[in-house]
Amino acid sequence: MNSLNTPHSPSIKTKEKIGILGGTFDPIHYGHLMPAKQTAHWLGLEQLIFLPAHIPAHKKSTFATTKQRVDMVKLVCDADAIFTLDARETLKNSTSFTVETLIEIKEEHPNSIIYFLMGLDSLLSFHQWHRWQDILSLCHIVVNARPRYDLKSISTETQKLLKIYQEDSLEKVQQKKSGCIIFSPETFQS
After folding, report:
1. I want to staple 154 with a disulfide (CB 3.0 to 4.6 A). Which of 73, 116, 158, 160 is the partner?
2. Nearest C-alpha neighbor of 143 from the set 173, 102, 106, 188
3. Cα–Cα distances in Å, from 111 out to 18, 139, 180?
4. For the segment 23-32, what is each residue's pLDDT rounded down to a tens digit?
5. What is the pLDDT of residues 148-178, one digit of tens each?
6. Do residues 130 and 57 touch, judged by C-beta distance below 8 A?
7. Closest Cα partner for 105 from 7, 2, 34, 35?
């Protein structure tokens, strides 16, 4: 069974563009939902996949259990047709590494363009993620604003990353299969 079609997840509706938002979702809240929906609309996505992590790589623990977090995301997805749950990482008994999941999704959908959404807070540590270069070879990174995080205070490492990979034009990003970092104007203007 395709893990995107788990009992917790309906099939992907579009084969050309796949939007993904990963996280612990402990709990899932409007700070996830509103920017995600705005960004999906800006990207022209018909669907955005929520990908809850079982054992997150960047957090020591969660308050809610994995099942509780999956159930919360499922409720959100049931309430809004644009959102879909992919519970594949919750079925693993090991650390959830984004690169491994993206490899699986890319193998399942080799002709699709993947947009991986993250908050500005995650971008600030992205250069420390497991195999971050491989992540960029598999998808585009779309960055959403986050409260209390400012582009003016980014580290030297993040500045170097942006100098190489940042693209300001969505049209140019859409001409490539992967490798770009773009900021969602929808969330940076809100």
Report:
1. 158
2. 188
3. 10, 12, 17
4. 999 999 999 9
5. 888 887 899 999 999 999 999 999 999 999 9
6. yes
7. 2
Q: Where are the alpha helices (DSSP H) in the chain?
A: 30-43, 66-79, 98-108, 120-123, 132-138, 156-165, 170-174, 185-189
Rg of the chain, C-alpha, whole Å: 15
Q: How far apart are CA 93 and CA 86, in angstroms?
A: 16
**Closest to 98 measured CA to CA, from 178, 23, 5:** 23
Q: The whole model's pTM is what?
A: 0.89
Residue 71 tokens, joined:
């159930």
End-to-end CA distance of the chain: 40
Q: What number of other Cβ atoms are within 10 A of residue 50's Cβ?
A: 27
| Helix (H/G/I), strand (E/B), else coil: 181 | strand
The owner of tokens 């809004």 is 80
Q: The domain 3-189: what is its CATH number?
A: 3.40.50.620
Query: What's the burial of 161, exposed, middle or buried (CB within 10 Å: 0-12/13-18/19+)?
Result: buried
Tokens 């790589």, located at residue: 57
The pair of structure tokens assigned to 19 is 């939007």
Average pLDDT, stretch 40-66?
91
Phi, psi (degrees; rounded to nearest 5) at 95? -60, 140
